[in-house]
Amino acid sequence: MRWLICGTVPYPSMGLTIGQAGLYLGCASSKDGAPQVYILDQRGERSGLPVNQGTPALLGAFVIMADILHCDPPEILLAGDDGNGDGSRLLYRYLRDNIVNYAGYGITFHYFLPDVDEHNRLLIALEDVNPRPLLCADAGFMYAAKMSGYASVYDLFTPDAGELAFLADENAPHPFYTQGFLLADDDNAPELSARAHSHGNAAKIMLVKGKTDYVIQEGQVIHSIDVPQVPALEAVGGTGDSVAGIASALLAAGLPISESCRKAALTNRFMGQLANPTPAASIAELLCRLPKAWEKVQNI
Amino acid sequence: MSFLSALRRLKNAFRPDSVHSAGERGIILFTHTGDVIQAESVLKQAGLPISVKAPPPDLRTGCDLGIEYLLLHESFARVILDKANLTPLNYFHVSGELLEPISIFQHKDFGEYLMVRAANMKLTVEKSSGRIVNVSGGGCPDVPYLGALLVGTTLQEGVMPRAEGRTLCAYALQLAWEEAKRLCVG
User: Fold this and answer.
1) I need a surface site. Which of A39, A186, B2, B102 has the fewest CB within 10 A?
2) Residue A187's pLDDT is what?
3) Do residues B91 and B74 touch, judged by C-beta distance below 8 A?
4) Can you give the pLDDT at residue A162?
5) Does residue B161 lie in a domain region?
6) What is the pLDDT of residue A199?
7) Residue A33 to residue A56: CA distance in whole angstroms
């Protein structure tokens, strides 16, 4: 399946960038031991994209998995945004005006400034797209989807424990206002997922990232993954983004959604186990272990 | 009466009561959350009893933060914000309860490192030095930007997320930063 990854990157001067991404150098070849991701824009210009947290981390995980799985690299729709929302608005509007060109694609929506009006205009435009794209959302776009009241239109959400508490709180317009549901040990994910589903604030399937990862379908737990345990992963920026990237790549390779989620959660955990990180590690260091991690997971 | 003397009189007039205890309230909204963060700072410095809250549902757009104030202080708030070159979108009268930001922090001790979570944001510091080693969580566009800016700085002398942040995730990160500083530096 052809796949589009769209989201903001933390470079305010970067305008709307439409193109492809790929793996420029694997970890073994690069000088600093970190994977090098390139983007090829609409003018045919190729440039490097540092793999840090956020959409670049998701993209890094996707292109490494695409390389392993011998599937097409992702198409990209990126824009620089430092939080003022300018880049996000470029993305919302491009998507609204051009979504018809993505019929039959899979789309992962990632770091956006949540904007319910812009989100809803895009959803209206999506009604005319046939076949309908497979819709996955994480981060700020997932916040907008929940706040809009149309979360159940989405095929996959990938929240962490804090974001799940937000999805389960029908009154909260952003995780910042979530009250009362967040437990220290994150062990109420099944109950929160059921609550989010019952209020129409969940996607059809959710991969909940936490001490135990859960794959939830229509509010019910269908997989739980709790080994290997690598507690430091929670502190490392980008490790949630990498799970979403791995899951997206597996979907692009043709795996069913629930199986993609289960394997993505396992792969991310093995990636962490192989890297044995401290809480001061970076996602770039961890992504180098992704090929070995996949070797462990592919037949489980 | 000069602006400064008006401000002094205003400060002396306020008691440390919560906003709710004294009459009708309004909410000040801005186009960008970054402006709210600045406005909160100047209004608090001026001694106004304000709180940051979520706008009422019919005024929300997606990444919203407003400043709840007492209507009787509106003219002073207008002067203070005008002096600070902060232009609100509008001042709205509110009647019902407004949602408050999350006020519960969670801590995870990794031995040498401490992770503090506020809402969806997590900040990890090296306990011995106060050095920020990781920022994770969040979904607004300034999170990766702030992560790059903060990692490697110390809580004692580094950049505060509020100074550069523009979104609710940045505000949550500021709360985590303050809590980490309280725990590690005192």
Assistant:
1) B2
2) 74
3) yes
4) 85
5) yes
6) 96
7) 17
pLDDT at B104: 79
The pTM for the full model equals 0.91
User: What residue type is assigned to position B116 of the chain?
Assistant: V
* Residue B170 belongs to domain spanning: 105-184
Is residue B100 in a domain?
A: no
Nearest residue on chain A to B126, judged by CA atoms?
A: A280
Q: Is the distance from CB of B170 to CB of B143 less than 8 angstroms?
A: yes
Phi, psi for A107 (deg, rounded to 5): -130, 130
Look at residues B94, B117, B134 and tell me which one is the last residue of a structural domain: B94
Query: Does B99 reside within a domain?
Result: no
ipTM here: 0.92
Burial class of A115 by CB neighbour count within 10 A (0 to 12, 13 to 18, 19+)? buried
Q: Which of residues 183-202 of A touch B (CB under 8 A)?
A: 184
Q: Are the Cβ atoms of B139 and A115 closer than 8 angstroms?
A: no
**Are B147 and A53 inside 8 Å of each other by CB?**
yes
Q: Residues A142-172: pLDDT tens digits? A: 999 999 999 999 999 999 988 999 999 998 9
Instruction: Assess whether B12 and B89 both reside in one domain.
Output: yes
Contact criterion met (CB < 8 Å) for A83 and B145:
yes
Report pLDDT for B12. 46
- In whole angstroms, how far apart are CA A143 and each of A132, A135, A178, B145? 21, 14, 12, 19
Asked if A13 has any chain B CB less than 8 Å from its own CB, the reply is: no
Q: Do A239 and B136 touch (CB under 8 A)?
A: yes
- In a shared domain, residues B69 and B142: no
* pLDDT given at position B66: 93
Q: B34 to chain A: which residues are within 8 Å by CB?
A: 83-84
Going from the C-alpha of B175 to that of each of A95, B55, B125, B170, the distances in angstroms are 34, 20, 14, 9
Q: B124–A279: do the CB atoms touch at under 8 Å?
A: yes
Q: Could you read off the pLDDT of B86-104 as tens digits, one per residue?
A: 999 999 999 888 998 887 7
How much is the average pLDDT of A263-269? 98
The answer, yes or no, to whether residue B14 has pLDDT greater than 50, is no
**B129 and B72, same domain (yes or no):** no
Of A84, A85, A279, the CB nearest to B115: A279
Q: What is the CATH number of the domain that holds B23?
A: 3.30.70.980
pLDDT at A185 over 60: no
pLDDT per position as a tens digit, B119-164: 889 999 999 999 999 999 999 999 999 999 999 999 998 788 988 8
SS3 B105: strand
B76 and B141 co-located in one domain: no
Domains assigned to chain A? 3-297 (3.40.1190.20)
Return the higher-pLDDT residue of A204 and B31.
A204
